[in-house]
Design a protein that fits this description.
Blueprint (H helix, E strand, L loop, with lengths): L6 H15 L11 H4 L4 E7 L6 H20 L8 E7 L4 H13 L5 E2 L5 H14 L3 E3 L15 E3 L5 H4 L1 H8 L9 E7 L4 H14 L3 E8 L7 H10 L3 E4 L4 H13 L5 E4 L7 H7 L1 H4 L3 E4 L10 H12 L5 H20 L5 H10 L2 E3 L2 E3 L12 E6 L2 E6 L18
Parallel strand pairs: 1-2, 1-3, 4-5, 6-7, 6-8, 8-9
Antiparallel strand pairs: 10-13, 11-12, 13-14
């Protein structure tokens, strides 16, 4: 049996392959078709509709589809209807490279939207960069996205992974001695998004005197967390900060229940943002008081959010999960650039426009650094009685109560 390749180890080789495979790709025809055409504007994307990251991929697709419906109801883009073509990359780095090359080279899409997760967006964005096409990704928080000197990539959330949990870490660090945990554990998925989130929290808390008693990275193939949880329990950690996607976060909580382990605080990077799926996976009682960082809240009074929530409920039923909102916001960013420039023939102009302007989205006002990374701050959420609440920063909180895990108030 072959040993599985670590996702981190695969990034460099797949990113290079993406560039090589993208050599035949070309930017949209600069013939002025965007100004004079009367057919639909076609946007292409690849998403993990199957495989490990399929929940986030399906949610993101729904966000894209809601945006298309609302955009067309409002008259389209540049006065033309919008269509979106989505291919399934099955949570596979090689497949995502193939999909974007096909979208650009064979399908001839006019614009691109990104895939889901940094793991897939790193190689996918290399294809777009080689083709000279704007690439706005809804879920690409890894710092490794922005250290390659790319000119066409933009992340449509508020912060990269290393700073997403900063408001939470700062809050813990500033707690009075009687409330601040003395020890912490840092388990993390081997993933280019999850690990930097955990590293950022650890750096802040160690500087504040919180002792690290456990830190380890587990492979993406991990399904049973009993041994990891037992080691953390035995370490005496009062705070657990897990860098997780979805399934591993749910399985981790289940293992904590089996071990009879309940630290004073539990933070998970992504799992709790999956809404009803998370509640069903861990149970409402186990979700009570779990901290997480979030780009979005359904009650936010942001540009287009009320229409988004209503249309999502009409199309899919219920409240939109975070990944759907992130997908919608990414499309808002692309549309703003196209409308700001007045076309999409010159995609370098679209990238320049984003670097020079802010965009109002359902996540709030987004601005970018020169490398395409966002220049903002995340919300800190917490589950209260089956409801996702914003607890930090205080000026935008939806509740003034912050809970310890499983409901004990600070």
């Amino acid at each position: 049996m072959r040993n599985p390749i670590s996702p981190r180890a695969a990034l460099a080789s797949v990113g290079a392959a993406a560039v090589l495979l993208g050599t035949a790709a070309c930017a949209p025809d600069a013939s002025g078709a965007d100004a004079g055409g009367d057919g639909p504007i076609v946007i292409g994307a690849s998403l993990p509709l199957t495989g490990e990251f399929s929940q986030g991929g399906l949610d993101t697709q729904q966000g894209y589809e809601v945006w298309v419906e609302l955009q067309n109801e409002a008259g389209g883009l540049l006065g033309r209807d919008v269509e979106i073509t989505v291919k399934d990359d099955a949570t596979n780095q090689n497949a995502v490279v193939t999909n974007y090359n096909t979208l650009i080279d064979q399908d001839g899409v006019d614009l691109l939207l990104g895939t889901q997760s940094s793991l897939l967006n790193i190689p996918a964005s290399a294809v777009a960069e080689r083709a000279g096409m704007l690439y706005v990704c809804p879920s690409c928080a890894s710092p490794d996205m922005f250290n390659r000197g790319f000119e066409y990539i933009f992340f449509s959330q508020q912060a990269i992974a290393s700073t997403q949990a900063k408001p939470f870490a700062d809050w813990v660090a500033e707690l009075p001695d009687g409330d601040r945990p003395a020890t912490a554990a840092y388990p993390s998925l081997d993933d280019p998004f999850a690990a930097p989130v955990v590293d950022g929290v650890r750096e802040t808390l160690e500087a504040a005197g919180v002792e690290t008693v456990y830190a380890d990275v587990y492979p993406a193939t991990t399904k049973n967390f009993d041994a990891i949880v037992s080691a953390i329990r035995d370490s005496g950690a009062e705070l657990v900060v897990q860098g997780a996607q979805f399934e591993d976060g749910v399985n981790f909580v289940r293992a904590m229940n089996r071990a009879g382990y309940a630290p004073e605080m539990l933070y998970q990077s992504s799992s709790p943002t999956y809404g009803e799926q998370y509640l069903e996976g861990v149970g409402e009682d186990n979700a009570q008081g779990v901290f997480f960082s979030s780009s979005y809240h359904v009650a936010a009074e942001t540009s287009g959010n009320a229409d988004f929530v209503a249309k999502y409920d009409e199309m899919f039923g219920g409240l939109p999960p975070e990944d759907a909102a992130d997908g919608f916001a990414a499309a808002q960013v692309v549309a703003a650039a196209v409308e700001g420039v007045g076309g999409y023939d010159d995609q370098a102009a679209l990238a320049d426009w984003l670097r020079e302007n802010s965009v109002e989205t359902i996540l709030g006002t987004l601005t970018w650094n020169e490398d395409g990374s966002p220049d903002g701050q995340f919300l800190v959420g917490q589950w209260h009685d089956g409801v996702s609440e914003v607890v930090l920063p205080a000026d935008v909180a939806t509740t003034d109560e912050i809970l310890r895990w499983r409901g004990t108030a600070f």
